[in-house]
Specification:
Elements: H1 24-32, E1 39-41, E2 49-56, E3 62-70, E4 86-93, E5 98-99, E6 106-107, H2 112-125, H3 134-152, E7 161-167, E8 170-179, E9 182-189, E10 193-200, E11 209-211
Antiparallel strand pairs: 1-11, 2-3, 3-4, 4-10, 5-6, 7-8, 8-9, 9-10
Length: about 220
């Protein structure tokens, strides 16, 4: 069975995120340090775009990052969140099983399932059922996060459907699923990059992806 690598920014020991950085320059530096191309929605999307965060391994290697499109996601239970329209594109470097930086263990390969996991956990981060009080939210998030992991590890299962979307103008197969919280999809692009995406209020069926030519323009 394919193993999903849980490489969310908060899940990997030694991971550093650019989110909350004091300057836009520090944020974009994380993206510039990546050895793989970044993807976002193609030119058909004319709304606002923004850098969100990058995730790095303990040795500082950039593993993945997110680009936001449309409204800035907020917790679904907050006033006005139901009317938000956003899509977040996650780019993740493809890598084989490899030794850890300190030589003490083995790191899982990063796969399409890894991108699906990042996208699923990203959607959860801006989702709270309004009926839950604060004391129950951690339990709910733990439960849903485990569910998202199990779903990402079974991309051929009944929870997912096939969806073909253009990547740099070429149709690419994606795994796609919807829930009451929004949608998640994942697939692979050229150049050793897996693409994950999640959103709400924007249909995934009309999306297309392309390489970002100048990431500094998003800062």
């Amino acid at each position: 069975m394919e193993t999903t690598s849980r490489v969310g920014a908060e899940d990997v020991p030694g991971t550093v995120t650019a989110e909350g950085a004091p300057t836009a320059r520090r944020t974009v530096d994380g993206y510039l340090a990546a050895t793989f191309p970044w993807y976002g929605l193609d030119e058909a999307f004319t709304g606002p775009r923004r850098l969100m965060q990058v995730g790095t391994a303990a040795d500082g290697t950039v593993q993945h990052g997110s680009i936001g499109h449309g409204d800035e996601p907020s917790v679904r239970a907050e006033a006005g969140a139901e009317k938000q329209r956003f899509a977040v594109v996650v780019s993740m470097a493809s890598s084989p099983v490899r030794r850890s930086g300190d030589g003490t263990g083995v790191l899982d390969a990063t796969t399409v399932s890894s991108a699906a996991w990042l996208a699923g956990s990203g959607l959860l981060s801006c989702t709270w059922p309004p009926q839950l009080d604060h004391a129950l939210r951690d339990d709910w998030l733990d439960q849903q996060t485990e569910t998202a992991f199990e779903l990402a590890d079974d991309l051929e299962g009944p929870a997912w459907s096939a969806l073909s979307l253009p990547v740099d103008g070429v149709p690419v197969p994606f795994h796609y699923r919807e829930s009451e919280f929004g949608w998640v999809l994942a697939g692979s692009a050229r150049g050793g990059v897996h693409i994950g995406a999640y959103g709400r209020g924007m249909s995934a069926y009309g999306l297309g992806f392309s390489v970002i030519g100048d990431i500094t323009s998003y800062a």
